[in-house]
Amino acid sequence: MSEQLPSPDFDTQNYARPNQNWICGHACEGNACRQGPDAKGRCRVTAECKPILQINPGETKGRWRCTRPGGECESGPLPDGSCCRPVAKCSPVPTLRVWRGRATLVVIAASCAMLLILLGNPPWRNQFISPGEISRTHSGAAFAALAATNHLNQNCGACHVAGNSGPHGMVKAAWRAEPGFFAFHKFLAAPAGEVTAIDESCEQCHVAHNFHHPNAAAISCSFCHAEHQGKMMAATTDANCNFCHGDTAKMAAAHVGNNFTPVIHHFADDHPQFRFITEHLHDPDTLKFNHALHLTGATIPNLPGGAKLDCAFCHSPDVAGAFMKPVNFEDNCRVCHSLQFDPATPQLALPHGSAEYVSAFLRSLPKQYADLATKENQTDENGFVQQKLAALRAQFGSGEELERRVFFSTATLGPETQIGTLSGGTRALFPGCALCHEVKNSSSGSPEITKPVMPERWLAQAKFNHAKHASIACAQCHDAVHSRDTADILLPAKETCATCHSPRGGVVDTCATCHTFHNALVVAR
Amino acid sequence: MPAAPTILERPQRWDAAFDAGMTDTDVGRLLATAPFSEMDAEKFPKRTPLREILRNDTRILKFRKGEIIVRQGDYGTSAFLILKGASRVVLKPDLAPSLLGRQAPGKKGVFRTLAQLWNGSRPPEIFSRSQLRQAAGLGARQTKNEVRVFLQDLPRVLNEHRTERMTAGDLFGEIAALSRMPRTATIFADSDDAELFEIRWQGLRDLMKYDDALRAHINKIYRERALASYLRATPMFQHLTEEQLERVAAQIEFATYGDYDWSGEYKRLAQAGTVRPEKEPVIVQEGDYPNGAVLLRAGFARLSQKFGGGERTLNYIGAGQIFGLQEIAHNWRTPDAPVNSQFTLRAIGYAHLLIVPTRVMEEIVLPSLPKDELPAPIEVAQDERDSPPAAENGVREKVGAEVLEFLTENRFFNGTASMVIDLDRCTRCDDCVRACASTHDNNPRFLRHGPAAGSLMVANACMHCADPVCMIGCPTGAIHRESFAGQVVINPDTCIGCKACFNNCPYDAIRMVEIRDANGEFMVDQEMKPIAKATKCDLCVENHGGPACERACPHGALSRLNLNNLDALAKWLKL
Amino acid sequence: MKRFRRQFFLGMFALITATVGALWLHVKFSQALPDYAFLTGWILFAAMLGLTFFNARKKLPFLSLGRAETWLQIHIYLGFFTVALFLIHLNFRGPHGWFEVTLAWLFALVSASGVVGLVFSRTLPRRLAARGGEAIFEKIPVLRHALKTEAENLALGADAKSPVIAEFYTKRLAAFFAGPKNLWLHFVESRRPLNALAAELDDLRRFANDAEREKIAKLATLVRQKDGLDYHRSLQLALKLWLFVHIPLTYGLLVFTALHVVLVFGFSGGAR
User: Fold this and answer.
1) Facing C269 at nearest CB: one of A5, A18, A196
2) ipTM of the shown complex
C-alpha cells in the first residue's frame, strides 16, 4: 500500500497556499522561494542580499555590508549600495484556478461580443433573435415596401417597436413594455386576449377591429393569429372561438334581447339548428314551381340529348364554383316552356321578361308573322300572314281574348306540338303566364306580373362551397324530390351537415370551416 | 535478506543538561542551602546521585525587579525555589491578558469581518508597525539568549492587585511541573537582586523519590492546594460528605509514570522502529490484584489485553477517566468470587494518576454510591480465550483496529480538535484551505496532508492538544490557551519568533512565517534578516461561526474532532 | 454513513414534492394565464440566481452564512428542480430560432456538467482513496521529477553498470517517466499500462544477474509509484476540470439570459 505512491512530502517549513494566484516558477523543481510572486504575477526576487549601511562612530560615510544569509560574499556590495550578485527572476506560474477565471472572462467577453455583433447588424440581428419563421405575407420585399420599414428589407420593425432600433432601443422598449418587468400582479391577473400595443401595428394595414357582433369585446389580433409559426400563419382553432362562444357569462353579457346565440362548443354537439328551420321560414318567391313534378313526374319530357331532367340542368355552379348560378328563364325554362302561343306555329314564341313586351308583341302579330315569313323564305308573305292570323282568330276569337289567355290562363293542358329540340312527343306547356307567375290586372295598359324574388342566400352567416361537395349527390342534402311548393326552403338541416362534419363523420368540423370572424372582408390598403 | 538495523545510541538521562553552565561552585552552594542541606545523599542511588541531579537538572536564574517569572495559564515543566531576594504572587484580581502577552479575547467586529473580503489579493501575513509592540505596561529586555518581559508600572500593579510576598526558601511551581497542569498564578520578581533556583520535573521527581522530607512536603502542598477541589469535581465522589472527602483526600496516592518529554524522543524512536507497546511503563498489570481505583488526572493510558502471544489494544483513556472501578466494585459485592484486573494499563507518553486505595473505596466511596451508579458485575470467563467484555470491545469495533493503532502510534489521541479528513468524500478542492486563508491574513494555517489509515487522514493542523507541549518555554506568553482546556492560540503581536513552540510541537503543526509590509515585502530586522512569527491553526477563535475549514467543506469530508476518547470519532465514522 | 443518507432522503423528498407541485400548477394555469411564460420565466431566473449564490458563499467563508455542505445540498436539489422549471417554462416544446436554441443549449450544458460534476465528486474520491496514498496535485510535478531523477540514476547513472537495464530504460521507461501519462486509461480504471510495464520488467529478469535483479525490483517500485502519481493526477484533474465547463458557461448563460429578458419584454405584445 505504501508503495503505491512516493513518500508523502510533509513540508514542515512551508504552508501550501492554494489561495494564492501565482506560484513561484521554481516550484516544479521543488525549490519555491519563500517570498513568492506578487499579486500581479511578478517575481519579487532581486538579489542575494540587501546591503546595509554601517556607520561606525567617528565615520561619516560608512560602509555597505553584505547581509547574505549564508555568509558574506567575497566581493561585497557595490558602492551604490546594491548587491553585486543579482538573482535571475523566475517566471511565476498561474494556478489552475486562475485559468478558470480567465476561461470565465473569455466566455463572458465572447458572449457579449457575439451578442453585440449579432444584435448590431440588422440582417443578422433579426435572423438571430427571431423565435420562428414569419409567414410569407409578412416577409419579403413586397411587404417591406408596403410597411415602409426600409432597413435593408428587414421587417421586424413593421410590427415590433423594438425592431426598428439597435440594442439601446430594445432595452428602452423592454423598459416601457406593458406589463412591465416586475408587474407580477399583472402576470397573474391579465385577462386573455387583451388588446396590446402590437395590435396597433396590425391596424396599420388591416382595417380596424371589426367584429361580427357590435357587442363583442375587443380581442387582440394575436389571440387568434399567431405569427412566427412558419411559412403560413397558424390556422385559428376552435379554442379561439370557444373563448367567447363557450363562455356563458361572456355570451350573456354580449347579447341583449331574446335573440342571441347560445353557448356553442362543437358543431355536432351544441351548434343550434339552422334558423330557417327553427323559425319556420318560407321562400317568399311568387314564382310557382313544383320540384317534385319536374324531377319525378311521368309527364316531364327528356332533355335534348335524351337525358332526364335533373338538378344540374337548372342549377349550375357559377364561375367560382361555390354557389349556383341563379336560375333564369332563357337558360333553364324555355327549353321546355317555349312560350309558343300558336299551336300551328311553334317557332314563334313570346318574349319573356316584361309584360309590356308581350303586349306589344301580341299587338304586332301581323308584323311578327311577316318577319317569320321572310325568315322562312315564304313566297307568299301576305298570304302566309293572313292564313296565320285567320287560324288564330278561329281559335281564340279575338286579339283581346288571345292576350287575355296568354297572360291569365292557368290551364295545365294545351295543344301538343312537336318541338324540334325536344325528343319525343311533348307538350309545349304554355297555357299562360299565370301558370308560373303572379299576374295582376293593372289600371294602366298591360297586366302586372310580380317580379319573382329569388333569395340568393339563406344561411348568410356561413360560407359554403358546392365545388368541395361535388362528390355528394344533390339529393343527399336538398330534398327537392319531395317539394311541391315554391315556399319550401330546400336546404338541409344541421344534422345533415353533421353527418360528415363531425368527429364521427371524419370531415373537418371547425368553426372556421363555415364561419368567418371578421365582418368585412380583410382588405389590404 | 533483512536490512541492517539502524543503530542508535540509547538516549541517556543526562544527554542534555538543563543548564550547561552549572559549575561545581553552584552545586556546592546549593548543597549548602536548605532543603538540600538536610537531604541524605546516601539514600540516592549510584546512577542518580544527588550532586549530579543538582548539576544536570537545575539552574540558577537572576531576575530584576518586575520581571515575570511564571505566567498564569502557562504550561511549565519546572519548579522554582527562591535563593535570594523576593518575589510576589498575584492573587486577586488576575493580571490583564495583555500584560501576560495574551491576545485580547473576543470575536472580530463587523468592519474587520467584512474587510476580509479583500484578503484574497493581499500577500499573506501583513502587519503594520504599530501592531508589533508589547502591550503598554510591559517592557522586554534581552539577556544573553533569553528574553525577559517585565512589568513597567509596578506601583500600579501593586495597587490594583492583591499580592503576596515570597522570600528565600519558598518553593513554587511544583504542582504544575509534576502534574502538567497550567500555572495557577503569575509570579514576578520583587527585588533587583532576586536569585531563583529552577529545577526541571525529572530532577524534582527523583528528589521526591529519594528524599522523604521533600516528598512529604510536596504531598502536603499538593493535597492542600490542588487535590480537594479536584476531588469535589469528580463524579464518583459527589455523594461524599465533607468529612468523608477529607478522609479520602488524606489517603489518596498520586504517581507519575512515563516521560514528560515523550513527544520529541518518541518520534525519533518511532521512525527508527524501536517503539512497541510492550515497552511502555505498566501502571496496572492484567491479572494483578486491583490495589486501587486509578483516576487519570493528566496524560494518557492504553488499555490492552493478552491476545495470543502479544497484547491487543482495546482502547485508550485520557484525563478524567477511571480504571479498575469495575473490578473493585465486583469484589466488594461478591467477596467470595473475587476477580483480578481484567486489563493492563500502560502509560502512553506520560500519565499522572491519583490512586484511591481499594480499602478506601470499599469503606467510604462505594457504600455512598446509589445502586444505579455502580458498575455491573463482571461475568468471569470460564475460558480465558473468550473475548473481552462488550463495553470495551464495542469501541474497538466501532472504530476499527487499524484506526485505533494508527491513532495510538501517531499519538493523535492527544488532540481535542484534530482535523480529520474522510478521503472517500474529499474532492481535493482546497476550499478548506482557502477558507482558512481568507480568515487568517491570506495565510492558511494548516496543510491538507497528513498520515492516513485507510480512508481516514489526520491532516497536519494544530490539534489543540490536551497536553500542549508547544506551550512550554514561551518567553513572552504569546502562546496561550483561550480558556481552561480551550484553544491554543499564538498572539502574533507579542510573538518574537524564538521558535521554541515550533521546535517543540511533535506534530509539526506550527510553522514560522515571515511577516510582510503592505507591499508584500518581508519585514526585516537591523541585520536585514526577515522577521518570522510562529503561526498555527487557532480554531478560528476570533471568527464568528467556528472553524472556517469545517464550515467550508461542501462534501462533509472534514471535521475537527476530539480524539481524547473515541466517542466523537466513532460517531463521525458511523455518520 | 447515516448523515449522508438522511441528506439524500430529505433532498429527494423536497425535490419530488416541489416537482409534483410545480407540474400540478403548470397543468392548472398554463392555459388559464396568458402571461404564464413571464411568471415561469422569472421563477426560473430566481432559481438560477439562487444557484449562483453558492459560488458567492464560497467566496465569503468569513461570514457566518451557513455550512457549505448545506449550501451544496440545496444547490444540487435546486439544480434538478431548475431543470423541471426549465421544461415547464418552455411548455415542454422545443426552442425556436437561433437565439433561443443557443440559450437552451447553454442551459443544457450547464446542467449536464453539473450532473457530471456530482457523479465525479461522489465516485472519484473513493477510487483515489482505494488506490492508497495521497498526492497533493500541485506537488505531483515535483514528485514526478524526483522519481525520474532516481530512476535515471538507477538505470543510467555512473555506477549503474548494466547495459541491459540501461537499454530497457532508454527504450521504454524514459518516455514513461518524462511526463504525465495515460490520462484517459487511468480515468477508466484500466490497469493495462501498468500491467504491460510490469510484464516487461518481469521479462527483463531473465537476462539479469542478481545485482541487476535488485535494481529491476527497485525500478519496478518506482514504476508503480509513478503510475500511482499518474492515477492521482488523472482523477484529480477530472475533479478540477469539470468546473472549467460548469462555471464559465454559467456566466455565459447569465449574459444570454439577461438579453433574453430584454428581448422578451422588448418584443412582447405590450412593448411600446
Assistant:
1) A196
2) 0.89
